[in-house]
Every structure is written in C-alpha cells, then in structure tokens.
Amino acid sequence: xxxxxxxxxxxxxxxxxxxDLKKAxxxxxxxxxxxxxxxxxxxxxxxTFRKESVSEERKTTKRKTTKxxxxxxTKRKTTKRKxxx
Length: 85
Hints:
Shape: rod-shaped
Helix content: over 70%
Number of helices: 2
Structural class: mainly alpha
C-alpha cells in the first residue's frame, strides 16, 4: 500500500466509525458491532501507516543529509591561530 492509499482507507474507517457511533449511542446494537469491527480494521491500517510514514521520512532525511555533507566537505574554515610566547 502506498502512503496516500493508506490515508484514504484511514479516512474511510474513521467516517464509518463516526457515523455508526451516533447510532450506537442511541442503543443500536448492530451499529455497536460495526464500530468494533471498524476499529479493528483501523488499528491494522494505522500500523501500516506508521511503517510507511517512518520509511518515507527516512527517505527524505537521507536525501537532505547527503546534500549537507557535500556542502560541508567543500567549505573549509580559514582561521588564524594565535602565536604562543
């Protein structure tokens, strides 16, 4: 699953839960069951989201650090040392 697809499915499950929670508060037992099943599915998708977002973040930070290290290696500090007496 791509990160965008995971986000879409998370939104879908959250909407499902929100809709059925209103019905469950009124005493609808079938809606309560749907809320429980959707929360299980949401938990699975949220674990997938965590893995994908962490790997995506690592990809972007690696790119940034390689550019920084390249710039650092080309620049050299020019400082004068003080003479000791």
